[in-house]
Amino acid sequence: MVQELTARAKFVQEILQDKGYSSQVIELAESTRTAKDAAQAIGCQVAQIVKSLIFTTRITHKPVLVVASGSNRVNEKQLGTLIGEPIERASPDFVRTHTGYAVGGVAPIGHPTPIQTFIDQDLLQYTHIWAAAGTPFAVFQLTPQDLQKMTGGQVISII
């Protein structure tokens, strides 16, 4: 018997279906809150995990989404230079307000309003990658090309 998805995971699944993607959201017994946890639960490399990280611009307080390889850290100074103003990690409340998701379950899609998005170029080397699907226990598999298409993100070096 297939377990019913939780509300937020179902929301992500519906978005994927509505946009014509064949990805299936799965919910795991183990937490996927961190890239390491997700890779262990799924059985893939940490680098194949898509970390959806929300930053805020320090002057205009706009959200910025960076979808990063699980093995990379974002060079905030470099990204701020690219954007045109300094950035900092967003608070959990800011993340929920601008994405609709809690930290640890931020999907790269389904935000209330469009968010400027940057994609870690290191994700492009993999055939399949895994992204959060609305909760710290839900994920979906996709291709880097689908990630680019669904987010409209700009591919950059984030390190």
UniProtKB/TrEMBL annotation:
Alphabetical list of Pfam families matching this protein: tRNA_edit
This protein's name: Cys-tRNA(Pro)/cys-tRNA(Cys) deacylase
First and last residue of the signal peptide: none
Gene Ontology MF term list: aminoacyl-tRNA deacylase activity
Limits of the YbaK/aminoacyl-tRNA synthetase-associated domain: 30-149
PANTHER family: CYTOPLASMIC PROTEIN
Organism: Dictyobacter arantiisoli
InterPro entries the record matches: YbaK/aa-tRNA-synt-asso_dom_sf, YbaK/aa-tRNA-synth-assoc-dom
